[in-house]
Amino acid sequence: MSNLIHRNSDGVFIIAATPFDESGAIDFDSADKMVDFYLETGVSGLTILGIMGEAPKMAGDEAESFARHVIKRVNGRVPVVVGVSAAGLDNMARLSAASMDAGAGGVMVAPQPGMITEAKLKSYMAQVCEAVGETPICFQDYPQTTGVQVSVETIIGLTVDHPQIVMLKHEDWPGLTKLSRVRAETDTGDVPRMSILTGNSALFLAQEMQRGADGAMTGFAYPEMLVQVVARHQAGDVDGAEDLFDAYLPMVRYEQQLGLGLAIRKEVLRRRGVIASSKVRAPGPAMNARDMEELTRLMSRLDKRLKELS
Amino acid sequence: MSNLIHRNSDGVFIIAATPFDESGAIDFDSADKMVDFYLETGVSGLTILGIMGEAPKMAGDEAESFARHVIKRVNGRVPVVVGVSAAGLDNMARLSAASMDAGAGGVMVAPQPGMITEAKLKSYMAQVCEAVGETPICFQDYPQTTGVQVSVETIIGLTVDHPQIVMLKHEDWPGLTKLSRVRAETDTGDVPRMSILTGNSALFLAQEMQRGADGAMTGFAYPEMLVQVVARHQAGDVDGAEDLFDAYLPMVRYEQQLGLGLAIRKEVLRRRGVIASSKVRAPGPAMNARDMEELTRLMSRLDKRLKELS
Amino acid sequence: MSNLIHRNSDGVFIIAATPFDESGAIDFDSADKMVDFYLETGVSGLTILGIMGEAPKMAGDEAESFARHVIKRVNGRVPVVVGVSAAGLDNMARLSAASMDAGAGGVMVAPQPGMITEAKLKSYMAQVCEAVGETPICFQDYPQTTGVQVSVETIIGLTVDHPQIVMLKHEDWPGLTKLSRVRAETDTGDVPRMSILTGNSALFLAQEMQRGADGAMTGFAYPEMLVQVVARHQAGDVDGAEDLFDAYLPMVRYEQQLGLGLAIRKEVLRRRGVIASSKVRAPGPAMNARDMEELTRLMSRLDKRLKELS
Amino acid sequence: MSNLIHRNSDGVFIIAATPFDESGAIDFDSADKMVDFYLETGVSGLTILGIMGEAPKMAGDEAESFARHVIKRVNGRVPVVVGVSAAGLDNMARLSAASMDAGAGGVMVAPQPGMITEAKLKSYMAQVCEAVGETPICFQDYPQTTGVQVSVETIIGLTVDHPQIVMLKHEDWPGLTKLSRVRAETDTGDVPRMSILTGNSALFLAQEMQRGADGAMTGFAYPEMLVQVVARHQAGDVDGAEDLFDAYLPMVRYEQQLGLGLAIRKEVLRRRGVIASSKVRAPGPAMNARDMEELTRLMSRLDKRLKELS
Predict the structure, then answer these.
(1) Which amino acid positions bind pyruvate, per UniProt (chains A, B, C, D) (predicted)?
(2) What is the torsional sign of CA A106, A112, A116, A117?
């Protein structure tokens, strides 16, 4: 059975951190524990080396070896999507090929800054598709970071023109209407279905599921919440899904802080015993003592609230 | 007794909408009802003609007449802060003078785009202070909209150099550490105290109060929550404040959508009977039918949650 | 005979400064002298209240009275285009109506920041066309300032959908291929001709004429050069046009400095006896003593070079 | 004798292209010819792997091998500066160490996007200095590309705090006053001298030399002009320097087109027999047939003008 991503992929593709030890080297042991942890929570896939995954701070050979290691550990149980966004197509093609050879399920591509008309973006994505060969692509629509605004019309054009663009990582902001439109205007007439997984730190996950998302692709450090919210929703328990989501919302909101969120997530994963160190490569955000106390308070409030709910 | 803003101002300064009728003209009757509503919730002040208050879409004489009208209706019960940010200092000085003549409590100024070194910003704020005379100023630190990044050092320099800059509308993002630092590094040595009111749609209000904010200056359409959270916090009930805040968080998060948030707030105020129309001047955001349903659901979930809590 | 702008408008539409006296008030006497000066150099039109014309720093009634004054002085000899870009459509409609009533030849509109997909831009321009009625529109494509990237396809869509959009102020950068494409892909099939006047401080005027521009719309303080270059080009003297242009290029390059260019242009106009003061409204750029010396040197080198050429 | 850059470095440090063959691989033969060509024109140094040198599109090991190759070919005749700007400090440190081991004269660093207060920038540059060890640094002030605005005060603070920051690549825009201020406010009191080389495609080279620049660091494809202008200026022939510069200005202006300029420079170098192919790695700018004709015309006009001058 193939573990490639496809137009009906759903569930939670967790955005995985890259664990480093205190010296800044990749911590492969923690990577193994992290993979096991994610799989135990019930995720449907992993996405590694994303924009938030410190990929731009890794050397090319480091990225490849991390990808191979994770893919091997996952061992085909779920698809692994590899972020390959890069300034040059050669580097993108190299990482994509290495990842797919190792058994990846697809690659994720965000447009480079500067692809700022739909004509330029379409031309760029055609080059990307050629560069990565037949590899299935998750298109990351993340204008807050890339500066590239993409209309619904363009998203549809991309998935029609390039059958390998099968998935949308939706994180335009605010973007609820955009999600509704992509859902309504695909899988109809000549336009194929598209898997829609939502990002933006899951701040609107309940609403996004109600509007037709297939799941989430984000890095919330309590993946079990994402998995349960998506599962309850798919089971028809819309209110139950939103109740659970709202209980976690104070923490979702806290992790969603741009930049700092990465440090928070790694610290939560460390506290939960998933990774050995919350080290972020320089230059990078760091939590200070006050932030640490605040996180302790928020984690403890979350525990209390979950007990109330159960 | 003076109703000017000062270095110890606290509580909730609600960011007021500008109500329009369906034709787009200022709806002064709704303005009166809105003022009464805000005062009944217990706010400590009103801020009108802010960046979100559609001021840039009003003619200069409209803005002046709206300011005069609101100030008259408030009638000295709380201070009214008038947003006077403008591309030119002449226009700023004119609106400031007209507002202060009418009895305003101060003006709010955000730096113009382009004041993008601290040297330029300091020079600009010196010009602003001269242009508005002795008027107390609330400095709005809102880089997401202005593009002007302001360090803690610069904020302190501004309030030291210009005694009239007495208040900070804190809405850098992420900005919790910045708030902590401004609190710690003012009211000490030669640096005077500064009133810190937080913006950013109150997404972190509980955390911000815990870090020493004096209150909030934002436009959440349930001002009673803001008032109670600040009051509970000031009364020492830190957990109770955060519990209440978290109950409203799904709605806070929903209103916080950039651009669309204005339409949502006006619609909530309309549904609550505060203003007659949710009209936003063109070009502006609009809620569609799906958004309307979603809002209905969220409002109803909020009611349910509040009942659980009480 | 009508003096409205149209799809075959050509020549030089000079971007006019707004002269202020030392106190910052509009200097109507200088405005008269400036109009006379421009007309004597042979310009085909005037454009007032552009982005560089300090319009955002003027009150609404000031802008209207300046527009009426200039239009009256021009007295129908050439079309006057009035910049009406504004954050709100109400303000835009008001200035447009007042200007057209006074005898303007059309209005110029740049998209508001935020209209950053072609779908949003098209919707915005449809609203603009409705707001200004039948008025002929010059669409200003100036992404460096507006942040709005516009593709050739969108420009063509706009002029096809809205017959009143008859002129393009071309100042995308770098934009030579864009100009070539708009020229090649209009006036063909169902797409009507479009007048193309180039901006960007005329830094590429010779090349742009060679690629099919109809003329220039910029504020170079030696309009006689613009007029002669366009005239020579239209007379078939391509090399002579470029020789003359190159002689002025050091000064064109000097005036093209973003922001400061406005102060330089006003100072050159003052030195040439056209306006009484080089005052720029605050906050605004100012030349220091070193800049003044440098300008003196450049003006003197220009004189010398022109003598060599003649 | 050391060939490290220092606080009195002057002359022309040419920004070198990275020659590729038609397949996109590094063309080391062309690199050799290019090095020889640059040295024959009399440059005082070479700068490789700059922002415009396609470094972000090269793999880490490619960049290292290119640096080693060029440094070996130069063989100590002039200093070679290596651009090491990178998202992560680890990658920066690695390329810096490899280059210095091979005999480089220093490294060039531009701040990463996001270092957008002076406090953040200072902290970042302290990390950079630690990461690259004792290596002399050329600080690249290029806000148009990095988005990081740097005040004169900050530049001075950096060179005072970090003795290894010995050189400024000046390319803020407009930036003439900034250059004057850095020149006046260094080499005085406790502030050491700083070498100032100007970038920005040399569009203002004559003016910048007159304001005290030590030379140029840019990639104009006729380096002999840069060398002669700087030499004439240093010999006291200010007018002669500017006359020569102005003759080349139409071409300087043409090459200065953002993005496309790289393709133009490579094509000029190819036409001049310096490199075998004008290949730019994807995604990248490309000249079309019309651009090619235009370049031919401009090159031929330049030849004619140079004959007139001689």
Answers:
(1) 217
(2) negative
Q: Distance between CA atoms of A102 and D309, rounded to whole angstroms? A: 64
Cβ atoms of B218 and B15 closer than 8 Å? yes
Q: What is the pLDDT of residues A138-148, one digit of tens each?
A: 999 999 989 99
Whether A24 sits inside 8 A of D61 (CB atoms) is no
The amino acid at residue A177 is T
- Cα separation of A45 and A81, whole Å? 8
Number of domains composing chain D: 1
Interface of D with C in 226-265 (CB under 8 A): 242, 246, 249-250, 253-254, 257-261
CATH number of the domain that B41 lies in? 3.20.20.70
Residue type (1 letter), A187: D
Partner C contacted by A185 (CB < 8 A): no
**Which of C54, C91, C259 lies nearest to residue B59, judging by beta carbons?**
C91
| Residue D21 neighbours by CB distance under 10 Å | 15
B95 in C contact zone (CB under 8 Å): no
Nearest beta carbon to residue B173 from set A211, A258, A290: A258
Mutate one of C209, C295, C301, C303 to test the D interface: name it (highest D CB count within 10 A). Answer: C301
- Classify residue C302: in a domain, yes or no: no
Give the C-alpha distances (Å, rounded to integers) separating B100 from B57, B71, B95, B96, B136. 22, 10, 9, 6, 10
Listed residue (C56, C106, C98) closest to C80, CA to CA: C106
ipTM score for this prediction: 0.97
- Chain B: nearest CA to A134, how far in angstroms? 37
Count other C-beta atoms under 10 Å from residue C113's C-beta.
Answer: 12
- How many residues appear in chain A? 310
The pTM for the full model equals 0.97
* Residues on chain D touching C210 (C-beta within 8 angstroms): 294
Residues 114-133 of A with CB under 8 A from C: 116-120
Closest-CA residue of chain A to C121? A151
- Which of B26, B51, B84, B89 is most worth mutating to test chain C (most C CB atoms within 10 A of its CB)? B89
In-domain check, residue D6: no
The label of the residue with tokens 């379409």 reads: A122
Taking 60 as the threshold, does the pLDDT of residue D125 lie above it?
yes
The pLDDT tens digits for C184-205 are 999 999 999 999 999 999 999 9
**DSSP 3-state of B196:** strand
Neighbouring C-beta atoms of residue A82, cutoff 10 Å? 30
Determine, for residues D91 and A61 on separate chains, whether the beta-carbon distance falls below 8 Å: no
Phi-psi region of D236 (alpha: psi -120 to 50; beta: other; left: phi over 0): left
Asked if residues B197 and B15 have their Cβ atoms less than 8 Å apart, the reply is no
Which of these, C217, C78, B290, B22, lies nearest to A179 by C-alpha position?
B290
Q: What is the mean pLDDT of chain D?
A: 96
For residue B1, what pLDDT is reported?
41
**Torsion angle of alpha carbons D304, D306, D307, D308, nearest 10°?**
90
The token pair that represents A63 in the structure block:
């990225």
- Determine if residue A217 is labeled as part of a ligand binding site: yes
Judged on CB neighbours under 10 Å (0-12, 13-18, 19+), A308 is exposed
Dihedral of the alpha carbons of C165, C166, C171, C176, in degrees to the nearest 10 = 120
Assigned domain for D56 exists: yes
Task: Answer for the pair B46, B16: CB distance below 8 angstroms, yes or no.
Answer: yes
| Identity of the residue numbered D283 | P
SS3 D66: helix
Q: Could you tell me which chain D residue has the CA closest to the CA of C259?
A: D174
Residue to test with chain A: of B144, B152, B290, B298, most A Cβ within 10 A: B290
CA dihedral B143, B144, B145, B147 (to 10 degrees): 50
Chain C touched by D147 (CB under 8 Å): no
Residue C108 and residue C140 in contact, taking contact as beta carbons nearer than 8 Å: yes
In-domain check, residue D271: no
Whether D2 has a pLDDT exceeding 70, the answer reads no
